[in-house]
Amino acid sequence: MESKSPSTDRISLLKFFWATLIITGVGAVAIMMQDSGRQKATDAFILTTKHLKENAAVECPVAIRQFLKSDLGIADYMTSDGSTSVTLQWKGPAGGEFGTVDCTYILDRGIVSLVIDGKNVASK
After folding, report:
1. What are the pLDDT digits (tens) for 43-75?
2. What residue segments make up the domains of the chain, in order of their start?
3. For 35, which DSSP code?
4. Element (DSSP H or E) covering residue 76
5. How confident is the model at residue 3 (pLDDT cuts 50, 70, 90)?
6. Average pLDDT over residues 28-48
7. CA-CA distance, 75 to 60, in Å (whole number)?
8. Distances in Å between the alpha carbon of 68 and those of 41, 92, 97, 117?
């Protein structure tokens, strides 16, 4: 019959303690890394706004070139409802070809309004 020494029992108990501590720590970290509903909603809002702005930034300058010769570059202002529409606005230089250009882009519909110097030149 084998007898266990007290130091063997302590080592086994210590191994069990550390294993339990590690498993509990990994579980706690995994739970903390899960996104909350609010975080998921915020992420969706940000991604949708980004998608809208990127699409408008590509399509609006193409439409504007049909009416202006100027290269507008990056829009000066952007307004968005964060879910379906974005309006990009450019301010022209003093005495330039245009004063302001507003281009409204709606998700799944494309450009719905193009206004140059207060005149609606394209709409859907």
Report:
1. 888 888 888 889 999 999 999 999 988 788 888
2. 1-34, 49-123
3. P
4. none
5. low
6. 82
7. 10
8. 39, 11, 8, 11
Cα torsion angle, 20, 25, 30, 36, sign: positive
Residue 80: name the closest of 51, 60, 100 by CA. 51
d(CA 58, CA 74): 10
Place of tokens 């501590």: 21
pLDDT-derived band of residue 95, with 50, 70 and 90 as boundaries? confident
- Strand segments, DSSP code E, in 23-109 are 77-80, 85-91, 100-106
- Measure Cα distances from 82 to 11, 16, 88 in Å: 59, 52, 13
